[in-house]
Design goal:
The chain has 13 helices and 6 strands. The chain is α/β, with parallel strands linked by helices. The longest helix is centred in the first third of the chain and has 16 residues, at 20-35.
Length: 301
């Protein structure tokens, strides 16, 4: 999230609401509650006045037909009690300058009291002209379960090493957790583009990867998860037709798609196109600096 916040507005907002920025906000809020409760109460009332509105309201209910019929009148009554417009409707706040709201590009070392590290590197492929699709998602999945598993986990000793490609936003991130290394892991990430560009899978190996990717897309869900997922797809414009198109892209993927993702990742690997965030203790970051990795340090605790 800390990496993604440097490339897209929505991710910078998410970081501000659930990341390190939010943690620092809570610390400041704790002090304000003790010293200036009235200003906190005023802020809470302002938030209430903004969000309590039928404007933009989306109501999602997952229930059987009989249960929904019994609940419908209560839902209608609830919605009727919400104001038509928020008292501060029309205020845009941070949306007035979306580019300024995105976090600045930089490599960071977040200092925590732990004996293991968490190493991330990423960027946005769409900004480099690459258009992710189902086939590139398949290639990224294979990269995580083969090359990154072997180099970062098996050889490097990390508890986990993987990558994530968001087909909608174009964000791509390498990640490791409970990792004894920093420099070694980053070098492994830099070797991933070449691995994909030279990758050749047998028909059987490709079929196994396809089955896994389709399984991720159409995994079993309980009713509550189905309802929530349906709402998210409605909000993001992900139609059934788009989902089917991605399935077909996965099913029809070839090695050319793997090679093309490798080329895009090679371009992303350049310093100006990617960011590094490492969560580690002070000594580990000092050692990494001695190996040529200069990170802007931020104390978390």
């Amino acid at each position: 999230l800390r990496i993604r916040s440097q490339y897209r507005l929505t991710d910078s907002v998410s970081e501000s609401m659930s990341g390190l920025t939010y943690l620092n906000f809570l610390r400041d809020l704790d002090r304000r509650v003790e010293s200036d409760w009235q200003s906190v109460a005023n802020d809470l009332k302002t938030i209430r006045d903004i969000i309590l509105s039928k404007q933009g309201l989306v109501l999602n209910v997952t229930a059987g037909s009989e249960e929904f019929a019994a609940l419908k009148s209560q839902l209608v009554s609830f919605v009727d009690g919400i104001p038509d417009k928020g008292k501060l409707a029309g205020s845009s706040g941070w949306m007035t300058d979306s580019k300024a709201a995105v976090f600045p590009r930089k490599n960071e070392g977040l200092i925590i009291p732990a004996q293991i590290n968490y190493v991330g590197k990423g960027g946005n492929l769409k900004s480099l002209g690459f258009k992710p699709n189902g086939a590139s998602y398949l290639a990224a999945k294979h990269l995580g379960t083969s090359y990154l598993w072997d180099t970062v986990r098996v050889q490097g000793g990390a508890y986990g090493g993987f990558c994530r490609l968001d087909m909608r936003t174009g964000n791509f991130t390498y990640l490791s957790y409970r990792d004894p290394n920093i420099g070694y892991t980053l070098k492994a990430y830099d070797g991933a583009p070449e691995y994909l560009q030279k990758c050749e899978l047998s028909e059987e190996e490709l079929s196994k990867t396809v089955i896994g990717a389709i399984g991720d897309m159409d995994s079993y869900q309980l009713p509550d998860a189905k309802g929530y997922g349906s709402m998210l797809r409605a909000l993001t414009g992900e139609t059934d037709e788009k989902r089917q198109m991605r399935r077909e892209e996965i099913l029809n993927a070839t090695m050319k798609d793997f090679h093309q993702l490798g080329e895009a990742l090679e371009e992303m690997s350049k310093a100006d196109n990617s960011s590094i965030v490492v969560v580690a203790n002070k000594d580990s970051l000092e050692k990494a600096k001695g190996e040529g990795l200069d990170l802007e340090r931020v104390s978390v605790f």
